[in-house]
Amino acid sequence: MFGKNKYENNDPILFTGPVQVTRRLVSIDDKVYATLGLTAPVSKIDAGTGKTLLTYKNTEFTEEFIVDENKLITVPLPYCTYSLLVIKKN
To answer: pTM of the entire structure?
Structure first.
């Protein structure tokens, strides 16, 4: 039976974690941009095959990022700077 007590204190790790995790995945057309681990660099992935097409250098420890036109803008720890990379649109 489902109810409030069914999941209470069952596995707290499922309900906690960095809020930035949802800001580390972007999908554009048939490409996905994501960090494949908490401290991993940003990768470009083919959405159809799951194959990693490219891993962007110097994007390790990315806290969150956006893709705008042909720009990958990352916010790394410790929030004191950002990086701007121009990415190819293919």
So the answer is: 0.70
